[in-house]
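Feature request disguised as a bug report, sorry. It would help if multi-protein outputs had a clear separator. Right now it looks like this:
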Amino acid sequence: MTPGPHRSPTSLSLPEARALALAAQGFGRGRTRSLDDVMGHLHVLQIDSVNVFSRSHYMPAFSRLGAYSHDTLDQRLWRDDDFTEYWAHEAAFIPVADRHLFAWRMHDFRERFHARGRLDALAASADFVRERLATEGPLLVNELEPQGRANRGEWWDWSETKQAVEMLFATGEVVSAGRERFMRRYALASEQLPAHALAETPRDEAQATLVEIASRALGVGTLADLADYHRLPLKDARSAVARLEAEGTLVPATVDGWIDSRGKPIAAWMHRDTQPVGRIAPDALLTPFDPLSWFRPRAERLFDFHYRIEIYTPKEKRQYGYYCLPLMVGGRLVGRIDLKADRARSTLVVQAAWQEPRAPKRTPEAAVTLLRRAATWQGLEHVEFTGVGNLSLAL
């Protein structure tokens, strides 16, 4: 490895860092024009089962493109063979071409299952799953289980068959061949994927590539940011960053206000191809699992926005709402809106709407415009506001 030239850290103001992040994530006029553009910027699209408004993986494209057809995204993700599911952040869609970059994680899962005795305990069930998938092709779990949910076990009350097939998914033997009612249809990876997707790229090489991809997707990021994007162990990410910096692929940077508990600047990096951008000030509703803000410490550093999802918080203890979507106005995260699609009444219900003290004066107007767009996108005729929260919406 030939070290790159020594470079002093690039100094960025916080607005400059935000602009780089927004541009890298596909916000800004002319930057993102198609679903493929969205995936090109993000690389991973997190999956979440909550459907109170819209399933999470549909939202990033709406946030960047505006209204589009759900069926078009379903076609790209599940029927065109260009994307697949894996534990790439949490459960997420990734390009099939990059699945080999996670072979090290599949190996780690296998070692973990072995250490915990799961490989032996589930061996018979795993063999049963392999045989059924080999002879019958892709199957849902309930099709794999002729006895229904008998023999339920310790993993979230899963049956042994469900435990086995999820273990095989984690270790790479099984993949998702699409979903039905949001349940995975499982298939053998060897029968579903091309040979290059089954390759095993060495751990250090794969992780360096993932960190480089993360650096492009983030615009500018700390070690923790770069590690979190694909959920790399921090020590592995540190090694990858050192390698990429020595090669000249990553360039050191500092951001005004990014300081640690001792008041010292937090080290950050940009990709060498990152170019300065002008002001970017989009308005958007985000899913709680949008890559722009899914790493909560980064959202606080970048946007001064403290966000915690309250799905698992008892109703009486929730501060903002069950499933609040972060609200971006003028390129800043300045509020949160708790939405529910009442399809029986063709109504988008705003269960609560909140704004930060520093929200711009036009926040209510921007929020109403976004809500009407969201309702139209979801095929809903009306928008209804309960009046809960400090963001008053004239609907």
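(second protein starts here, but nothing in the output says so)
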Amino acid sequence: MKIFATGDTHGNFERFRPEYFPEGRELTKEDVVLQLGDFGGVWFGDERDDEALDWLEGLPFTVAFVSGNHENYDALARYPVETWHGGRVQPVRPHVLHLMRGQVFELAGLTFFTMGGAASHDIEDGVLSLDDPSFERKYLTLKRKERARFRIDHLSWWKEELPSAEEYAEARRNLDAHGWAVDYVLTHCAPTGIARQFSRHNAADHLTDFLQEVKDNAQYHYWLFGHYHDNKALDTKHILLWEQIVQIL
């Protein structure tokens, strides 16, 4: 089994084409490309997603993603849950898999802890509700505002971007079962101490604080994350990925 990793795709999967990822030609469905959130392939929640998802299914390898803050969580919730390599996944296609939160997967003899999600920081001007009687007025006002940054609930923003209490509890149970020792940690955002290195907008929240707890208490060899739109090795253990596809095994 060969394992690769890459960062945010936001529904654009050009990087997986053979001309950009020639290694992919030699892979099989047993090989996995791990995608670190803001996958964006399940965005509309209807047939408009089919072309891209079917194209991904046609690739020689398996694509497995953690969730980010830009995912359609209403649509994701409709997919069934199965067990894959010791952890819970949602197959959106047979070989396009959502790696659920708080899981530990065993791939090629290595363990991978997954904890997707992140708080959106492009919503300084608010989150609008379609049920608000003033929605149209507020929407038009923001559209006229230069560089307005806002989202619409259940259309371009979902509160499930951050884990639930149940997901945190499951993460702790699975970490306890492995003695808080794994080979890899896969997340979308970073622990608080790392997140604050990137921008003043990356304030601490419940998820980054939980990840900081993992960083402070778990044993791991590498931590791979996305979200901050850069390709950078912060040190020998913590790797930020965006467009690059790197082989990790």
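Even a blank line would do. Unrelated, but nice: Residues 97 and 110 are 18 Å apart (CA to CA).
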